[in-house]
Amino acid sequence: MNFDTITAISTAQAEGAIGIIRISGKNAINISREIFRSKTNKSIDFENKKLTYGYIYDEAIIIDEVLVAAMYAPNSYTCEDIVEINCHGGIVPLKRILKLVLKKGARMAEPGEFTKRAFLNGRLDLSQAESVMDLINAKTNKSFDLALEQLGGSLSEDINLMRKNIEELMAQIAVSIDYPEEDIEEITYGEIINKLKLLFDKVIDLANSGEKGKIFRDGLSTVIIGKPNVGKSSLMNVLLKESRAIVTDVPGTTRDIIEEYLNIEGIPLKIVDTAGIRDTDDIVEKIGVEKSKEFFNKADLVIFVLNSSEKLSDEDREIMKYIVDKKAIVIINKTDLKQAIEEDEINNTLHDKIIIKTSITNKFGIDKLEKEIYNMIIGGTIKENESKLVSNTRHINALEKASNSLKEAIQATKDRMPYDFIEVDIKNAYNYLGEITGETVETDIVKKIFSNFCLGK
Ligand code: GDP
Ligand code: ZN
């Protein structure tokens, strides 16, 4: 397709050694030729995918010393001519060059527009394009690897194969509808059911992998609760392996809610240290009872910390009641001190919870905690093809809709409904699967997906 020429700063908008301005479209090469010359003001030719050294000129004035890479269509990220100008990483040279490129006729790119062009030009399908954003946002190595797998087309392959199988099935059904009297091999209800069941199983497998996939992609929101001074901030710090939250001997000093990402065996835990019940009261004051309830209830995981050197207090008992029906792990901390806590009572009240004894000071029990969190969330064994986890909610929803349509098609076939009736459900499943790769997706959804991208990608 022939689009206009777009440009953007593609590196992070912060100081760095190098900044990159990207230009894509039919005038990318011409614009670059006009502004890029040698030190003696001679024009320079670009070699495909090679860095060329020179200067950016605004008329006769040198703006910056740069390296320029040209990538000719169709073998570029967008399938169009792309030029990337590597300049000094400050905001001044970046903005100057960007302004110059705009003056020469390029248009400011929308967020994600380069990747959108890669999609519209057929280089990436929609699920692959989406994985580009997942790569950028990945919180752990594991999340990154999953996104890389998806960018490589592993999900697309599965989807395309299933859609091909559906096409074949639909063709067989169509023949049976069109030529019912004639002497051709008609597909039987039994055969349709068998084929649909195979497809249904595959779709369900993929949809089910979404629960884990989403955890690796989006992380788990985790709240650490417990009275002041039991060791919540200390715990967060050991887990972070560097001091971010303020650790103090004065009860209730960690005042603000701190949000950090932890990496527990590849699972990103978005962790919130509430600084104890006392600060929880502050939260209530600040954001209101309903909102704060929402805040706790929204947590995917609660880590409840107790001080084993003190007897249980009313506050502890209140929290115990609260977490009974939540996904929670109990930590009995400060085991290096003399024990006073009523362990039996804890075991009785929270009998189905994982209870771990720790001494954070001595780094005792931390490994066990990490393992237990992982097992609890991911559930013991992990399958071989774990890299095929579906992680994007949009994909999971589409798979669920496809599985429902297949289920209806199977039921209709069992009920010996007319073939053209069954065909409708099968066609629906086909279209839902196509939403994942972007084959059958509506343009406003595509627009929405790319609008979430960062500028210059
Ligand atoms: P928070 O108020 O729950 O966040 O508690 P902090 O993490 O601020 O810890 C309160 C105090 O307990 C600090 O002085 C910590 O050093 C100390 N502490 C934390 N864990 C342990 C532990 O396992 N053993 C002992 N003896 N002290 C600990
Ligand atoms: Zn604290």
Automatic annotation (TrEMBL):
Listed transmembrane segments: none
Binding site for GTP: 229-234, 248-254, 273-276
PROSITE patterns linked: G_TRME
Species for this entry: Helicovermis profundi
Lineage, opening ranks: Bacteria, Bacillati, Bacillota, Clostridia, Helicovermis
Enzyme class: hydrolase
Cofactor binding note from Swiss-Prot or TrEMBL: Binds 1 potassium ion per subunit.
Gene transcribed to yield this protein: mnmE
Cofactor (UniProt): K(+)
One Pfam family it belongs to: TrmE_N
E.C. number(s) listed in UniProt: 3.6.-.-
Record-stated family: Belongs to the TRAFAC class TrmE-Era-EngA-EngB-Septin-like GTPase superfamily. TrmE GTPase family.
HAMAP family from the UniProt entry: GTPase_MnmE
Stretches assigned to the TrmE-type G domain: 219-378
Domain of life the protein comes from: Bacteria
Subcellular location(s) per record: Cytoplasm
Residues that bind K(+): N229, T248, V250, T253
Binding site for (6S)-5-formyl-5,6,7,8-tetrahydrofolate: R22, E84, R123, K457
Gene3D superfamilies tied to this protein: P-loop containing nucleotide triphosphate hydrolases, Probable tRNA modification gtpase trme, domain 1, tRNA modification GTPase MnmE domain 2
Name by which UniProt lists this protein: tRNA modification GTPase MnmE
Binding partners and assembly: Homodimer. Heterotetramer of two MnmE and two MnmG subunits.
Gene Ontology MF, one: GTPase activity
SUPFAM superfamilies, A to Z: P-loop containing nucleoside triphosphate hydrolases, TrmE connector domain
